[in-house]
TrEMBL record:
Pfam families per the UniProt record, alphabetical: Trypsin
Source organism (scientific name): Xenopus laevis
Lineage: Eukaryota, Metazoa, Chordata, Craniata, Vertebrata
Acyltransferase in keyword set: no
Gene that encodes it: LOC121398808
Example GO biological process: proteolysis
Annotated ranges, domain Peptidase S1: 26-265
Keyword entries, A-Z: Disulfide bond, Glycoprotein, Hydrolase, Membrane, Protease, Serine protease, Signal, Transmembrane, Transmembrane helix
InterPro entries linked: Peptidase_S1_PA, Peptidase_S1_PA_chymotrypsin, Peptidase_S1A, Trypsin_dom, TRYPSIN_HIS, TRYPSIN_SER
Keyword Phosphoprotein annotated: no
Gene Ontology terms for molecular function: serine-type endopeptidase activity; serine-type peptidase activity
Record's GO cellular component terms: plasma membrane
Name assigned to this protein: Serine protease 27-like
Amino acid sequence: PSAIVSPPTTASVPPACGSPLISSRIVGGSNATDGEWPWQISSGFKGSHICGGSVISNRWILTAAHCFENSWSPSDYEVQLGAYQLFQTSPNEIISSVERIIVNSEYVHPSNGADIALLNLTSPITYTKYILPICLPSTSDSFNEGMECWVTGWGTTVYEAKPHTLQEVMTPLISRASCNQMYHLDSQTSASIEISPSDQICAGFAAGQKDSCQGDSGGPLVCKLQGIWYQIRIVSWGEGCADKNRPGVYTLVPAYQSWLSLYSATENTIKVDSFNTENSVPTTATTTQKTTTSSSSYLSNSALLFGAGFLLCIWNIVMTKD
């Protein structure tokens, strides 16, 4: 069966998650193709882009908790779906208002973990080839160290402070052990202390040069498995930007499957270990929304933003450190 489906206006079933209808990629970091990452969103605060995020169902956006330090009021935020060039209006874009902000109740600071949040939109999303959901994996077991995955966002580059066009960069997965080992190099932190908690893990290059950077936290890190794209991680924090032995640190999405299910935000969660053929294509289930308001819709006043967020930063020059 084909992974290509029609938008809901003509189809009798919801579209398959993790199956963009447009595909084009340049290894090494570059402009994305319009529609290539249809789950990518821009979260705006009072009209200005502050964070990335991803469509995980027709009412829910997955993002990072620390994106909401500025305000806890949903009316201060809007979500731009189907965006490609942020400062140039496109007929493929939809602006949605936010009904609820749900921040994980255990969140205090990005480096302490639980850096995950949900945005509940005021109206259901109408899917198009430029706006589609990403699949969420039930486990991280199939996504091993060295696997080539991708981070997207409207990030700073060496040559342009605020590129208008959606950027993409390949970032290989790094195990927790390797990440902790790298972060202890040239560090005063005791080797017995883990840099990242159990719900966080790294991606990037030991040599640096390519990384997510300040300005667009909450964006998705996605990996392709048996022809389907899965969001395995959320951009969270890092030390510096594209520095040697300081890869980006990400929230591990499968660690929060139970939390997401509390809000019926797991309709596109797929048991990745159940796929045995290239032709297996997951489809979405009927959405059942809960209307209860979570007590976790707040941020601790003591929470400190680990930078202004993370924005894709693609370094095209060789960086050296003493």
